[in-house]
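Record 1 of the preview.
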Amino acid sequence: MNICFGISVEAVLKSILRTMPRISVIIPVYNRAKLISRAVDSVLKQSYKDFELIVVDDGSSDDTLKQLRDYKSVTVLSLDTNSGVSAARNFGVAHSCGEWIAFLDSDDEWKPEKLKEQLEWSDQHKSCTIFQSQELWVRKGVRVNPPRSHLKRDGDLFGVSLHRCMISPSCVMIKRTLFDAHGGFDETLRACEDYDLWLRIALKEKVGLVNKVHLVRYGGHSDQLSSSTPCQDKLRICALQKLLGRADLSAEKRTAVKKVIEQKATIVANGALKRGHLDDYRKYASIADAV
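->
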């Protein structure tokens, strides 16, 4: 056994911290062999270099792992079965060590200054533990302007986030301590997992904004969760119902949550009735009536 005398615990801890990256970047991927290199390359081309990049393969059955084989500076982790994006992100975070966590979806890409400019912003706003940037949309190869209702904003986002997800995972940077405090993504949700987590966080925290475009967000392909998961309002209703079970939900916010549950449940019930899905109609009509 080697015993080292004369070195304080504080000095040892500082030495360890110096070797830890400041940011952990997590990319979950499932069957995206044709897209994953674009996402990975956009991280490796960042002007800020003090990060670790962890790609979590969520049980892909295509050549995704083959595409990742030549990236020597990337940590590639694999799940045996397709467990969903929530499980993949949580798994990546659990195996990371950065002070900050940044997520990137496998079909998106970052601008080269994303990490640098976000960290510069955070150094000027030290009390802020979660913030995001603006994004540029590309749909089926064509740049489009996001509706004004989807433009990123800052401050208290709880009320507006009840209606739609106002934080994009690929835009956000979050303090590890905050992510851990809220238990990460809900692995029972195969979609709308971001809507659920950001609502839980926005209930307590204000969200910062770096008002620059740092993300190119691609859409219009068939394997997007938004395209492959039918009736996502059902999942959003689940997330909202979870909020009602919280003792720290104020009376004002509880009323707002109930109103949105009623709206979304009514929409789902009417859609089910039109399609002749009577069980769903009765279930969601009952939910709308109950709140």
